[in-house]
Amino acid sequence: MDEPDADGGGxxxxxxxxxxxxxxxxxxxxVADLPTGGAEQLPVAVANGAADGPTLWLTGGVHGxxxxxxxxxxxxxxxxxxxxxxxxxxxxxxxxxxPAGLRRNARETYYGDEDPNRHFPxxxxxxxxxxxxxxxxxxxxxxxxxxxxxxxxxxxxxxxxGADAAADALIDCHTAGVGSEPFAIRDRVLYGDxxxxxxxxxxxxxxxxxxxxxxxxxxxxxxxxxxVEENLQRSTAGAVLNEAGIPAFxxxxxxxxxxxxxxxxxGVAGVIGVAVELGLLxxxxxPESAGEPGVGVDSAPVEFPVRRFRGxxxxxxxxxxxxxxxxxxxxxxxxLADVVDAAGAERATVRAADDGYVLGRAEGxxxxxxxxxxxxxxxxxxxxxxxxxxDEK
Length: 393
Known about the structure:
The protein is an alpha/beta fold. The protein is 21% helix and 27% strand.
C-alpha cells in the first residue's frame, strides 16, 4: 500500500458530499428518479483525512430492518470525524443503502419482493429483460464504490463521484436473525475469467487481514457452487470482492429491527480496527471513545475453521422445539431440535451432520418439510481460493 502523502490529498466527493482534506461533509447520492417527482437519494458522509491514503467504504441498511448495521456506519463516520488530523486517507459512509426498505422497516423494498442485496453487477449474469429499478440502483452504487462507469444513465453516479472516492476496501454492515451470534463473513475468492489463481490468492490474503482486524468470529461463506447459486456474488460485498477485486466483507451484528448497543460498540471498534490495518490511522490517532476490536463479543466456541450453513432441515411438518441455543457448540450426531405436532407428540428429531456451533435459530415456531431449523457454522475444510466454475482447473 502506498505511503500517505504528508501534504494531504485532494477533495473527496460523493454525490453532494464534498470533503476537503481535514474535513467531514454530509450529503446525498441520487440513484433514481421517483414517479411522483423528486429522487431516491442515499445519505452519504465523507471523512477526508489531513493526509493522503487509502479509501474505506462503509455501507449499511441494504435491508431496511437491519438497524444495528445502520447505526454502526453512522457512529463510525462520526468517530472518524473526531480524528481527521490523524486520518491518512478517506472514509465514505452510506448508512442506508435501501431507503425504500427503511421506510417500510422491512427487508425488502416496495420496488419488488426480491432481496435488494442480490442485484449488484455480475458480468456473467444473463437476462432477456432490461434491468429493473433495484438492479439499476445497485449498479449505480457499485459504480460509485468502484470508480467504474455504470452501463446506464450517465446522469447518476458517474457525474457525482470524484475519482479519489473509489474504494480500497469495503465493510457492509448487516444483522442476522433474532438471537443470532455476531460474526464476520469471509467470502471465498473466485478465479477464472476475472483473475488468475495467483491474483485471487493475493486478494484473499488482503481480505483475510481486514476480516481478522474487525475482531468478530470469522465464518467462511458457502462453497463456490452454492455461493453462485444463491447469487451471493451479486451482494454488496460479493460484487465488490469477486467482480471488482476489492477486499470486502459482510459484518453480521446480531438481531434485526432494534439497535443492539453492545454490538454497536463492537461494530464501531471493528471498523476502527480495519482502518488501522489499512493504514488510515495509526494507534496513536485512534479516537479515545473507540474500544478494542472484539472486546465484549464472545469468541467462537470451536477452534477449527467454519463455514455458514443454513440448516439442517426437517423432514416432517410441525412445531420446532430447539435443543440448542445460539453460541452452543455441537458435534456430529447431536440433537439440535425436535419437531412435534400441535398437541405435543413427537414427529421428528433433527441432528447435526457436522461439528460446529449455532449462529442462530430459524424464526417462527411452525415448520414445513424441507424448512431449515437454524443457521449454523459447521466445520470447513475447503479452500479460500476456488474456481468459479466447477470445470475450471
